[in-house]
Write a structure and sequence with these properties.
six-stranded antiparallel sheet, Beta-Lactamase, 8 strands, 2 domains, disordered N terminus, Arc Repressor Mutant, subunit A
Length: 276
């Protein structure tokens, strides 16, 4: 039986919902960039049915944003994503600035080092570099996106926000956070924020992945807004109080250097004469 037009419209996602679903699929593929991701797992990650995911991936493939391996049928990011990334990187120039500090942190500590940026109420990991210590923390990879407060760098960003912002954020988001990360109750997050503020940096004691600890320091832009964080993740057995202090010192040094660079760049732009 043919659906009436009103009923037919109700079964279709709105324009904004369709875009959100496509972005959700794209991010899930990005998180599995090393080995690709199959259709069934992609459906599990996005909580969308197979026909919807298949329709979205077909469109993304036609636009060059996604590729599908002929033999394995796994999905990967396409060349168009790389092109768009290069354009964005050229505009913001952040990757060129933070690439060496992240490598240096990994080299000096032997652990995994990260640079993440704030995207509204979430933290997006842009860079990960592994050190030479044989035991690795697998808690965070480039492309992973967590709600603010979840993980070392993400917690550092949340703790650097003011009380009103944190309260409003928890009012809106704590239910969604708890559904994905049950250990992160409102009481836990509020306690972690206070701890981080009094300490001057954030510590994740295996709350995201058992045995994987992390230290994070928030980064502010020239206007004083929280824009990202450097962080280091290591296995619990390596995180003594003394080593925690050492890791914080290294992170603070890199954070201070980046904030100074951003300040100097901001001043240069403001004082540039464009009339000539």
């Amino acid at each position: 039986m043919e659906l009436p037009s009103a009923a037919l419209q109700a079964t279709r996602p709105s324009g904004s919902q369709a875009i959100q679903r496509a972005i959700l699929v794209l991010r899930s593929i990005a998180r599995s960039h090393e080995n690709g991701i199959g259709l069934s797992v992609l459906c599990q990650h996005t909580k969308l049915n197979k026909s919807t995911v298949h329709r979205i991936t077909a469109t993304l493939i036609s636009e060059g944003l996604v590729e599908q391996h002929e033999q394995t049928r796994r999905y990967y990011l396409g060349t168009e994503c790389y092109t768009l990334g290069l354009i964005a990187a050229d505009r913001f120039r952040l990757r060129n600035v933070v690439d060496e500090p992240v490598r240096r942190l990994a080299r000096e500590t032997g652990d995994a080092a990260f640079f993440s940026v704030r995207q509204g109420t979430h933290a997006l990991c842009l860079l990960r570099e592994d050190g030479n210590y044989p035991l690795k923390s697998h808690v965070l990879h480039a492309g992973d996106r967590h709600p603010l407060g979840v993980g070392g760098g993400s917690l550092a960003m949340l703790s650097a926000m003011d009380d009103k912002w944190v309260n409003d954020y928890l009012d809106r988001s704590i239910e969604d956070i708890g559904s994905l990360y049950p250990v992160y109750t409102r009481d836990v997050l509020e306690s972690l924020v206070q701890e981080s503020r009094s300490r001057g940096y954030a510590v994740n004691r295996g709350l995201v992945l058992k045995g994987s600890w992390g230290v994070g320091v928030a980064i502010r832009d020239p206007d004083g807004q929280v824009m990202g964080a450097y962080s280091i993740a290591t296995v619990e057995s390596r995180m003594s109080a003394e080593r925690e202090a050492v890791l914080y010192g290294l992170l603070r040094t890199e954070t201070n250097a980046l904030e100074k660079y951003l300040q100097d760049s901001h001043k240069n732009v403001k004082h540039t004469d464009f009339s000539s």
